[in-house]
């Protein structure tokens, strides 16, 4: 079985779901059910993020989840673990500044894999773009209880600085924002992050709790997706 080949232009980052299996967020629901509901509501790309899971269990979850995402033709990325992505032959990985180097990840995963990187500074963003990341996850935009990482809260001004620097450096790369995004601030985040004179926008928004913790994940995803696609540049 071959990994679905794609060009970056095929990828739709509009509504990017990052999973969280912690009891506070998932409760006693099944991860695959929640993600399937979210996809039905309009999620366009999924990242499996497991911070407390042994390798065997991680691979089993990834395999089950990939069976679902494939049904809807939605790419599945694995947080941190290149080996897990290889084991289940999914579409790619999302790595942070402390994870494997992009070049090594690319060598292991091949030219068709989607490799996303978390960045919170201009320097990290330019390096990741030069190193061939397919997209950047820019954040943390707002403080969030989902990731207690107060060192890297950059606000929408920080996102705009990074988008602008990438443009000026001549390194266009798809970017999504992450951190504290919900249906009441998504428009504001998108517009405040934009480098408007140059019409440079985020390609999408990545959320955890706004969908994963919602009582009805499908409805929550649908409302967020409608918010996103009701306005340029997404609509
Ligand atoms: N990386 C930066 S913030 C964050 C991650 C994984 C969590 C975002 O969670 P939420 O619930 O969407 O604020
Ligand atoms: Mg990581």
UniProtKB/TrEMBL annotation:
Give the shown range, full length included.
17 to 251 of 546
Thiamine phosphate synthase/TenI domain sequence ranges: 15-211
Source organism per entry reads Chaetomium thermophilum (strain DSM 1495 / CBS 144.50 / IMI 039719)
> What is the role of this chain?
Condenses 4-methyl-5-(beta-hydroxyethyl)thiazole monophosphate (THZ-P) and 2-methyl-4-amino-5-hydroxymethyl pyrimidine pyrophosphate (HMP-PP) to form thiamine monophosphate (TMP).
Q: Which family does it belong to?
A: In the N-terminal section; belongs to the thiamine-phosphate synthase family. In the C-terminal section; belongs to the Thz kinase family.
Q: Where are the transmembrane segments?
A: none
Q: What is the protein name given in its UniProt record?
A: Thiamine biosynthetic bifunctional enzyme-like protein
